[in-house]
Design goal:
Found in a complex with CFAP410, NEK1 and SPATA7. Interacts with NEK1. By secondary structure, the chain is an alpha/beta fold. Among the domains are: about 5-140, Leucine-rich repeat, LRR (right-handed beta-alpha superhelix), CATH 3.80.10; about 220-255, no CATH class. The protein has eight helices and eight strands.
């Protein structure tokens, strides 16, 4: 499924695609169908911050035209090869990249980090960790330079063979697992968006009678609400506050009646 023009404009609250500066589609239900298609990014010339964490993205080619992109969050997707960095090398303003928890990271964290920094030496932060001058120097020795895009042998209906095989591999992980948001997942997402983390003692455990499915559903809803609150202005937050207060009063009244 592709991220549509209408969905982008609605999320970014923009009148036209060239007016979109920030796009947050973290754990987005638009990407339940794998592989996630982000071809719309070719039409976002002024985009500066993109959050696509926790989706099914495997192809970064559409991003190479986002020349104003400075922050890119791709944590926990289905990017299988570091060759996809080839498309990010064309982005002169990219300073922040979060790529952790993708298959391309592999079993060797040092090799992964050195390869990313060798190809993207302008990064100031990688996977929420500041990049040092020493690392950039070491990357010239330990990192692998990427000089060509990933091979895609055939394309039909928007699917390449390499992408299709990546999606097939991803099916070993249930979709509910791909989008399930535990407390740690919620906190990572909030950290990306500079939001206050949820204290563990404030995040109550689920009653024993609830199934795993309902737990995941509640976590997903909570994560979505926290993300959307980032987009609200003062008036919107006041409406949320009033609605929450009424809901809490209703729950308290119900509990008193049951007692």
């Amino acid at each position: 499924m592709r991220l549509s023009r209408a969905a982008v404009l609605a999320q970014a609250k923009a009148a036209a695609l060239d007016g979109v500066r920030r796009l947050n589609c973290c754990a987005n239900l638009l990407f339940l169908s794998l592989p996630a298609q982000i071809s719309i990014c070719r039409d976002l010339p002024n985009i500066e911050v993109i959050t696509f964490s926790v989706n099914g993205i495997s192809d970064l080619e559409p991003l190479h035209q986002c020349q104003n992109l400075s922050e890119l969050y791709l944590r926990k997707n289905n990017i299988t090869s570091l060759d996809e960095l080839f498309y990010l090398k064309a982005l002169p303003r990219l300073r922040v990249l979060w790529l952790a928890e993708n298959p391309c990271c592999g079993p060797d964290p040092h090799h992964y980090r050195m390869t990313v920094l060798r190809n993207l030496p302008s990064l100031q932060k990688l996977d929420n960790q500041a990049v040092t001058e020493e690392e950039l120097s070491q990357a010239l020795v330990d990192g692998v330079e990427i000089t060509a895009p990933p091979a895609r042998r055939s394309v039909e209906n928007g699917w390449s063979e390499s992408t299709a095989s990546s999606a097939a591999g991803a099916t070993t992980e249930p979709r509910s697992e791909l989008l399930s948001c535990s407390l740690e997942e919620i906190n990572k997402t909030q950290e990306e968006l500079d939001m206050k983390l949820v204290p563990r003692d404030k995040y109550s455990s689920f009653p024993p009678q609830e199934t795993d499915c309902s737990c995941k559903k509640r976590n997903n809803v909570l994560n979505a609400i926290l993300l959307l609150m980032k987009e609200l202005d003062a008036e919107g937050l006041e409406i949320i506050q009033q609605t929450v207060a009424r809901r809490l009063q209703a729950f308290q009244k119900k509990e008193l009646q049951e007692e």
